[in-house]
Amino acid sequence: LSIIFTIPLALADGSPFPNRDLIIFLTAGTILLTLIVANVFLPLLAADDTKANDEQATNAALIAVLEATLELIRVVLKTDEHAEYVPALRSVAARYRSRLFRARLEQEGCGDVMRELIGEVFELQQKRADEIEASRGDAISAREAASYSAMLRGIRESVGYVDKATKVGASFKNLRGWLTMLWQTAFPMRSESEKSERAYYNMCLFALELERVAIDYLDAVVLQEDGRRSEIAQVLANEHRSISESLWGRINYGQEFAHDPNMDLEYKIYDELPEGMRQTFGEQFKKARHHSDEADAVALGIELEEIKRLRAQGTITKQQAHELRESVYLMQMTLIAE
User: Fold this and answer.
1) Which end of the chain, N or C, is surrounded by fewer C-beta atoms within 10 Å?
2) pLDDT, tens digit, for every residue of 25-47?
């Protein structure tokens, strides 16, 4: 632009320089156009790798915080010091498992492999569920089967399964089944009758059998395969073990004698609860509802402490810690508002 303005106004003979204004206009226009294209339009067309990397880093930080928080909740669940709050904390742990599951699926280089493994696990779980249902024959009525399926969905949802995963092993083949499910959803089991307790016990055993199928398959993947699939299979196997612990915890809650979680489980429909087993499932539901807000508050407090600890260790950055705290503060405000 500086050079173009050195063009003289007139030639040596005094006549005007031909097309001087047009030359300056075209030159200035070219300069402005290239500046606008380079600084405005190219960034809009190019992928924002920095933003994508920041989001992935923040998601990785969230995974680290959720894993640490969930581990501390599991430690509390294994102690007898807070037995009153255990059913509510168990529900909180399920919600944290759901959050962790979604965060892992969003992680680059992990989500696709995890989806593939999860799909394989669910297929095997459904196959085993179909085998169990076929082995029942006419032992239970269609109405009872629909009621059991609705209850199984509730159990899977309560341990952290989401969306279609809650339906694995709990399919409805007729209108009565769907109506039963709707009834169970609208009016969850609150009765402490022996019949309802026995039904829930049977479905806990059913759910445990499905977890055993998942753990056996994932352990085999860890041993037989290498690389990313093996690493993610190990993570998933640990999560399914945690779910099994939660289910065994429900069965053993408030019992004078405990079922052995390491026993070889052979699922079947029991006509009555095992001898000496107290009816505690209804009691657990009441305590979970009564202490739900307190358990949520405790868990969010633990999450904030874990953010602080991981920041001090340098595991997460200052900016990531700030964003994660803001999210927790929002959940705390929602909890207070409710």
Assistant:
1) C
2) 999 889 888 888 777 776 666 55
H or E segment at 118? helix 111-136
Q: Look at residue 211 and tell me whether its pLDDT is greater than 90.
A: yes
On average, the pLDDT of the chain sits at 83
Confidence (pTM): 0.73
Query: What stretches of 262-315 show up as alpha helix (H) in DSSP?
Result: 281-290, 292-313
Q: Which two tokens stand for residue 271?
A: 């006509």
Q: What are the structure tokens assigned to 41, written together?
A: 């339009």
Residue that the structure tokens 């052995």 belong to: 260
CA dist 116 → 109, 223, 233, 335 (Å): 12, 18, 10, 35
pLDDT above 80: residue 192:
no
One-letter-per-residue 3-state SS of the chain = CCCHHHCCCECCCCCECCCHHHHHHHHHHHHHHHHHHHHHHHHHHCCCHHHHHHHHHHHHHHHHHHHHHHHHHHHHHCCCCCHHHHHHHHHHHHHHHHHHHHHHHCCCCCHHHHHHHHHHHHHHHHHHHHHHHHHHCCCCCHHHHHHHHHHHHHHHHHCCCCHHHHHCCCCCCCHHHHHHHHHHHHCCCCCCCHHHHHHHHHHHHHHHHHHHHHHHHHHHHHHHCCHHHHHHHHHHHHHHHHHHHHHHHHHHCCCCCCCCCCCCCCCCCCCCCCCCCCCCHHHHHHHHHHCHHHHHHHHHHHHHHHHHHHHHHCCCCHHHHHHHHHHHHHHHHHHHHC
Rounded to 5 degrees, φ, ψ at 317 are: -85, 170
**Given a cut of 50, is residue 299 above it in pLDDT?**
yes
Count of other CB atoms within 10 angstroms of residue 98: 17
For the stretch 111-124, pLDDT in tens is 788 889 999 999 99
b/e burial code for range 69-80 (CB count within 10 A of at least 16 → b): bbeebbebbeee
49: pLDDT confidence band, cut at 50, 70 and 90?
very low
